[in-house]
Amino acid sequence: MIILDLELKDAPGELIKALTPISKMGINIHSVIHLREKKVDGRIPVRLVVDGLEDKTLNEMIDELEKLDVIITKVNNSIRKRDIDLVVIGHVVDTDIRDTIDRLNKYGLVIDLDLSMPDPFKESSARMKIIVDSEKLNDLYNELDKLSKEKNLLFIKSF
Amino acid sequence: MKVILLGFGIIGKGVINVIRKKKEYLKNKYGMDLKVVAICDRSGAAIDENGLDLELALRVKEETGKISKYPEKGTSLPIVEVIKSIEADALIEATPTNIESGEPAKTYIIEGFKSGKHVITANKGPLALYFNELLSYAKKYDRIFRYEASVGGAMPIINLAKETLAGNEITEIKGILNGTTNYILTKMEREKLDFDTVLKEAQELGIAETNPHQDISGLDTAAKIVILANSIMNMEVTIRGVNIEGITKITPEALSMANKGGYTIKLIGEVGENKLEVGPKLIPLDDPLNVKGSLNVAMLNTDLAKEVIVVGRGAGDVETSSAILSDIINIYLKSKKMG
Ligand SMILES: NC(=O)c1ccc[n+]([C@@H]2O[C@H](COP(=O)([O-])OP(=O)(O)OC[C@H]3O[C@@H](n4cnc5c(N)ncnc54)[C@H](OP(=O)(O)O)[C@@H]3O)[C@@H](O)[C@H]2O)c1
After folding, report:
1. At B293, phi and psi to the nearest 5?
2. What is the pTM of this model?
3. Which residue in B325, B335, B271 sits closest to B149, CA to CA?
4. ipTM of the complex
5. Residues A141 and A89 grouped into a single domain
6. 3 state DSSP class of B150
């Protein structure tokens, strides 16, 4: 038996979208548990229990799911991916937001970007979620530190 | 039990008021006859080896601003001389915090140990800068050193971790250790006001100090984190080793952004393995660390009990004095056993 912890967008059809490739691969799904009370930042954690698989099949399944933007946070309770929420304060846009995101994407994946610009001459703020492999977490933090100094941005992180 | 009080400001007066209020309680519950034999401020001291009249001392301070004006027993003797020459069981140190030198409190504390007194302090400065040195004096002279009020005011944390949670290894502590910044962020969030406006208002209300630098820059929280790291987690760190970011850059827009994602922003102090930092953090809205107004909160992560969370008032005269009183009682009970 394999336990997978996923994070899905809180929108209709997202669960079916995630389950389809799994059943297409002929993998038997035992149970689907919604952890609605643990919802963070618009995403819902879902726990899937599937039949035991060989590593190769397991990896193929993970690839298929990730292609569909499904976030797999844990496999059999070992943490694979973390998501970090960030609020950024500073001249977020004027300091080349494209470059900021590209540099973060070297270590993780920036999703759910949201910008607020009260006044084009004032500091703005942005919110984003970054999905990162557990082992790349420190690299990501280092990049955030560098960006913070270079572009005078304040990154407020979640734990 | 005889005590000497250094500093007769907000906390000093609070301590005297609490001692007055609890006189009967201490007698009945612990059989303790608590006498204040000296009170010092910048003008000098009032000294009476049989115990000062506390009501009179408060009145003199209120009316003249100087404890040295205490009738007959007032003196302009320097404080260090008072510490050395007056016999007492314990010294209660409540003079202003200096986060650069720790003085004059550091000298007072050391002189206290040297002259055979147990020491209680509410002062972060000397603890954040010279913790191990002060502790070595306490050991050398076989005296008790207590400082519950220095972190989190009335919120029990140091004695909770060291005594109540004895047997647990504490692996991480994080929390809001500064009431002023919590007040400011809470108000900015609720009323969508900018930082400067809320700070000014807090100063007018007496919640923020005229010089709020230590609070808003995160320095005050950093000093407290260092005290926790050294005293609870047996580290040997100083304030210079803390990564510090304050709250002056936080905007109401950023708080709204955080709220949209299910978070709020709080100034969090954190100590753990390879971690010693102070900075604004995103805290989930339904997290126990999301306490409002000027409250303080701390979460201790332990190996056996797992997470333990305390919430309480981080400032205030009577509130903070309650922590000092608990230290007095603890010293009384322990020294009775020491004989
Ligand atoms: N206020 C709180 O809620 C709170 C909470 C936790 C911890 N604390 C800590 O408690 C301590 C006292 O705070 P507070 O609010 O009571 O301060 P405060 O109101 O400014 O009182 C300071 C007292 O110390 C005296 N003093 C000043 N310089 C001195 C010196 N060189 N030698 C001896 N005495 C001196 C002052 O004398 P004069 O009266 O002659 O000016 C005054 O009586 C500080 O270390 C503070 O960080 C305070």
Report:
1. 60, -140
2. 0.88
3. B325
4. 0.86
5. yes
6. helix
Q: What share of chain B is helix, strand, coil (3-state, %, to 5)?
A: 45, 20, 35
Domain boundaries, chain B: 2-153+318-338, 162-314
Between the CA of B93 and the centroid of ligand 1 the distance, in Å, is 9
- pLDDT range class, residue A40, cuts 50, 70, 90: low
Using a CB–CB cut-off of 8 Å, the residues of B that contact A are 245, 249-251, 253-254, 256-258, 260-263, 265, 279-284
Q: Which fold has domain B2-153+318-338?
A: Rossmann fold (3.40.50)
Cα–Cα distances (Å) from A115 to A38, A87, B308, in that order, read 25, 10, 36
Evaluate the omega torsion of the peptide bond into residue B104 and state whether it is cis, within 30 degrees of 0: yes
- What is the H or E stretch that residue B130 is in? helix B124-140
Buried b or exposed e, range A33-54, using 16+ CB within 10 angstroms: eeeeeeebbebbbbebebeebe
Helix-helix angle B179-191:B252-260, to 10 degrees: 80
| CB-based contact A42 B265, cutoff 8 Å | no
pLDDT in tens, B75-131: 999 999 999 999 999 999 999 999 999 999 999 999 999 999 999 999 999 999 999
Average pLDDT, chain A: 88
Contact B137, B107 (CB under 8 A): no
Pocket test for ligand 1, best of B6, B95, B103, B224 (most atoms within 8 A of CB): B95
**Strand arrangement, sheet containing A71-75:** A29-34, A43-50, A2-9, A71-75, A78-79
B272: left (phi over 0), alpha (psi -120 to 50) or beta: beta
The owner of tokens 């799994």 is A22
| pLDDT for the residue numbered A73 | 87
Give the residue from B80, B72, B30 showing the smallest Cα distance to B52: B72
Burial of residue A9, with CB atoms counted within 10 A of its CB: 0-12 exposed, 13-18 middle, 19 or more buried: middle
| Pairing status of strand A81-90 against strand A154-158 | antiparallel
Looking at the fold, whether A39 and A15 belong to one and the same domain comes out as yes
Taking the CA of residue B150 as reference, the ligand 1 atom at the shortest distance is 7
